[in-house]
Every structure is written in structure tokens, then in C-alpha cells.
């Protein structure tokens, strides 16, 4: 009986973790460049794992927590510094902890002319150097689909002052999710510069979270969690009755 109670408890914990995952996705439904997180589960039912790892208890647990990198909807903003990457690819930025990768393309220029993401991370070029724009007047700045940034001189001439680098990763599963739409590269991961990126200028890629899908998952997970709670309560009641019967005579 104790084995069954712990099996139900393990299932409830797994569903609670899934609900937390869904809540995070829903909280970021309007976050530019956010990629939804997913969880997969596994059960230890028989064999050596069941007798050693699971200590004789059949239970479920989180097998993997992974990121779904499918492309989000591209939304027009008409801001010349907003960039969206079509298909695969990431911008490279400088964080306090080193290089990071992001799909977030809501760029702006700081007072000193540094190109920053919406969360104030310096955007890097192909040489891993921050991009500096001499004139921060956005009316004089233009970006093409290759990420080349140009400014309009007083004489009316266009001058390229930097290029936003776009990288692909040899295996996206080697990207580790960090905070605020950032990813770090795990051991074995390799960045590859994309010489001809497909950038949409004056547009942003919104989150790939589907509210309808997430709400359906939340309802299903909540019902499953409640079922596990009922099972745990039933086992507790049986335990109490067993204790009462043990005192008879």
C-alpha cells in the first residue's frame, strides 16, 4: 500500500512541475523571441531500474525539459532597428556571464551609440565586438536583410557602420536556456556564421507559444494532478483505517 501511495505522489509532483512549465510559457506569450519550453515524462515500471533506482516503487518522473525552437509569428513594427530571423539562427550578444544567443531582435541604440537588445545586451558583429552606431538618430539609420547597418551622412550618402551577425548552431539541443530569452552553448556545441541570413527589417518575431494549446495542456495536467491527489487521500484514509484495525483486541 505504501508503494502505491508513493507512486501517486511521484505522479502528482511530475504534473505540478508540468503546470509550472506551462505557467512560464503563458507568462511569456508576449515576450519577443521567446521559445516555449516542453517536458517529457518516463515511468520506471520493471527491470533493474525498478528494483534499484525506484526502490521497488512504480513511479513517473520528468525525463527531459527541452526548448521547442519552431519559428514564431513575424509581426511588422516599422521600427528600422527591429529585426526578425526567418528559419534557423540566433543573434549573438554579450552578457555579464559571457557570450549568449537570442532570437530577440527589438534593438535600440544607447546614449554612447552601442546597439543593444530590448534587455540591454550589446549586440555583436562577426568579430564578437559590440556594434557602435555613430549617429543615434534612427531616422538616419537603415538595416538591410543581411544585417548591414548604414547611416545617412549630411551629404546624403549611405555608409555601412556595422553588421549584425547571425549564427546557426550545429545542434540546437546543445543550447541551454538561460533567463530572459538567452541561451548559452553547452560543451560540444558549435556556432556557425550565416553569411546570408534571412532577416526581416522593421519586424519582430513574437513568442511561439500558442495560448489555446497551453490552456488545453493546463486543463489536462490539472485534472491529472487532482486525480493523483484523490489517490493520495484515499491511501491516507486506508492507512488510518489500518491503524484503527491494528488496535482491536
Structural summary, described in words:
It contains 3 helices and 17 strands. With 249 residues, it is an alpha+beta fold. It has 2 domains: 2-69 and 209-246, no CATH class; 74-205, no CATH class. Strand 13 (175-177) and strand 14 (183-185) form a beta hairpin. Helix 1 (2-27) packs antiparallel against helix 3 (211-246). It is elongated and about 85 Å long.
Key traits:
249 residues; alpha+beta; 4-stranded antiparallel beta sheet
- State the helical fraction: 25-40%
| Overall structural domain count | 2
Q: Runs with pLDDT <50, length 5+?
A: none
Range of strand content: 25-35%
Strand and helix map with partners:
Elements: H1 2-27, E1 37-44, H2 47-51, E2 59-67, E3 74-76, E4 83-85, E5 90-95, E6 98-102, E7 108-109, E8 115-116, E9 141-143, E10 148-152, E11 158-163, E12 166-169, E13 175-177, E14 183-185, E15 191-193, E16 199-201, E17 203-205, H3 211-246
Antiparallel strand pairs: 1-2, 3-17, 4-16, 5-6, 5-12, 7-8, 9-10, 10-11, 12-15, 13-14
Helix pairs in contact: 1-3
Amino acid at each position: 500500500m505504501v508503494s502505491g501511495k508513493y507512486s501517486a505522489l511521484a505522479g502528482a509532483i511530475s504534473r505540478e512541475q508540468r503546470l509550472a512549465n506551462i505557467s512560464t510559457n503563458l507568462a511569456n506569450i508576449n515576450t519577443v523571441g521567446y521559445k516555449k519550453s516542453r517536458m517529457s515524462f518516463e515511468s520506471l515500471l520493471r527491470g533493474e531500474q525498478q528494483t534499484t533506482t525506484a526502490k521497488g516503487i512504480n513511479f513517473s518522473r520528468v525525463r527531459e525539459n527541452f526548448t521547442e525552437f519552431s519559428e514564431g509569428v513575424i509581426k511588422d513594427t516599422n521600427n528600422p532597428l527591429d529585426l526578425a530571423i526567418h528559419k534557423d539562427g540566433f543573434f549573438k550578444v554579450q552578457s555579464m556571464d559571457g557570450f549568449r544567443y537570442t532570437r530577440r531582435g527589438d534593438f535600440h541604440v544607447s546614449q554612447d551609440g552601442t546597439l543593444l537588445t530590448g534587455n540591454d545586451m550589446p549586440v555583436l558583429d562577426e568579430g564578437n565586438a559590440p556594434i557602435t552606431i555613430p549617429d543615434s538618430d534612427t531616422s538616419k539609420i537603415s538595416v538591410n536583410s543581411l544585417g548591414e547597418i548604414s547611416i545617412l551622412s549630411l551629404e546624403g550618402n549611405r555608409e555601412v557602420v556595422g553588421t549584425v551577425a547571425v549564427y546557426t548552431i550545429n545542434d540546437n539541443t546543445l543550447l541551454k536556456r538561460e533567463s530572459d530569452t538567452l541561451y548559452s552553448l553547452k560543451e560540444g556545441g558549435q556556432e556557425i556564421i550565416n553569411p546570408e541570413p534571412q532577416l526581416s527589417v522593421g519586424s519582430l518575431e513574437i513568442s511561439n507559444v500558442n495560448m489555446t494549446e497551453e490552456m488545453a495542456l493546463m486543463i489536462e495536467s490539472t485534472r491529472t494532478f487532482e486525480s493523483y491527489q484523490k489517490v493520495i487521500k484515499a491511501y491516507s484514509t486506508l492507512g488510518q483505517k489500518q491503524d484503527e484495525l491494528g488496535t482491536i483486541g
